[in-house]
Amino acid sequence: DVKVTQSSRYLVKRTGEKVFLECVQDMDHENMFWYRQDPGLGLRLIYFSYDVKMKEKGDIPEGYSVSREKKERFSLILESASTNQTSMYLCASRGTVLDEQYFGPGTRLTVT
Amino acid sequence: GENVEQHPSTLSVQEGDSAVIKCTYSDSASNYFPWYKQELGKGPQLIIDIRSNVGEKKDQRIAVTLNKTAKHFSLHITETQPEDSAVYFCAASKDFNKFYFGSGTKLNVKP
Asked: Are the beta carbons of B97 and A42 separated by less than 8 Å?
């Protein structure tokens, strides 16, 4: 079974803090993704990575950065958290292009 | 970019009835259309998908139809059961990397 784990289920941070969200997959997948999920907006792609140290911007990269130093781990970084980044963050991984995306359980981040 | 619209936002059906969720997309280059089910406290899970060279696909009680001309696709669930209660998302993609999701449909199946 593919497993995608996220470091925290719930996180509360203060405005201006640097926030790290970690995602680990155990299936040796090349592709990893970060989405944010907001009510009424569905899922929106923040960044994705198709290989170690490789990344591409999604539709809403502003205010975020990512890091992929190892194949199994993909980190989302909020350099200076703001209240409008309060959201559910979902990580996903995928093997080849024809494989399905496997999602982690999500991290609900609240920025106060 | 692609714009995917999904309706209805909520759907309540009696157990055993059918449920239909509809999505439209704007980019005619989109060629892959997955549907995801998200249960409470979990990430979305793929339940069925369809590619643009196919008009319909069925998997037991779930079916998806695609009308490329009209740029819409639909999810059909027959003989609904309480465990079908969840949020369902449609998505569209043309490169299998960027997926554009609909806003979600909360399905409630009443026993």
From this structure: no
Tokens 């299998």, residue located: B96
Please answer yes or no on whether B102 and A42 come within 8 Å at the CB atom: yes
* Three-class DSSP labels, chain B: CCCEEEECCEEEEECCCCEEEEEEECCCCCCEEEEEEECCCCCCEEEEEEECCCCEEEECCEEEEEECCCCEEEEEECCCCHHHCEEEEEEEECCCCCCEECCCEEEEEEC
Residue of A34, A43, A45, A87 to mutate, testing the B interface (most B Cβ within 10 Å of its Cβ)? A43
Q: What is the pLDDT along chain A (112 residues), one digit of tens a residue?
A: 768 999 899 999 999 999 999 999 999 999 999 999 999 899 999 999 999 989 999 999 999 999 999 999 999 999 999 999 999 999 999 987 677 889 999 999 999 9
